[in-house]
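Page 37, continued from 36.
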């Protein structure tokens, strides 16, 4: 599916259009995935519902994905807008188009985690968990999984900006 904003930016759910260099370049320095290997990002894209946002010249400027069974549950992850394009409403555009995706309709639960975009997601109806004690997680830090990004080849560059994961 394709969505076109009045500004000329296009959101597209075609995973083959995603610029892996752009997405990996951002995620490898994001607070939730420092040092994530390119192969892990490629596998995540291949196994998710994705939305990329593209400038009028075709360059990718934003991204979001949902891990879902397409029946009952989805987890929104890796939402970002490149710093050079922030402040143009593209965060809302990428989130809106992902949440409107046909594969994410009629689900019992859609979840996400964020350190800095609570107001954005609350505007879409996301709320604090009513009973967080019911939820459990197994968590491995990115450093444990991928190594220290400061010493991992090519992953110490700063992407800037914020995202959520």
């Amino acid at each position: 599916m394709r969505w076109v904003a009045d500004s000329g930016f296009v959101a597209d759910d075609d995973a083959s259009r995603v610029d892996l260099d752009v997405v990996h370049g951002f995620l490898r320095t994001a607070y939730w995935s420092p040092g994530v290997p390119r192969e892990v990002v490629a596998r995540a894209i291949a196994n998710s519902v994705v939305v990329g946002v593209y400038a009028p010249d075709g360059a990718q400027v934003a991204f979001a994905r949902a891990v879902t069974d397409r029946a009952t549950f989805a987890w929104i992850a890796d939402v970002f807008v490149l710093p050079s394009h922030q402040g143009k409403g593209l965060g809302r555009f990428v989130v809106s188009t992902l949440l409107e995706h046909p594969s994410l309709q009629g689900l019992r639960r859609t979840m996400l985690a964020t350190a800095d975009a609570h107001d954005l997601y609350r505007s879409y109806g996301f709320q604090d968990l009513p009973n967080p004690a019911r939820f459990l997680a197994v968590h491995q830090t990115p450093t444990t999984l991928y190594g220290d990004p400061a010493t991992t080849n090519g992953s110490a560059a700063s992407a800037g900006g914020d995202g959520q994961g």
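The longest strand covers residues 60-68. Flag for discussion at group meeting. The helical segments are 20-27, 38-46, 90-100, 118-122, 142-146.
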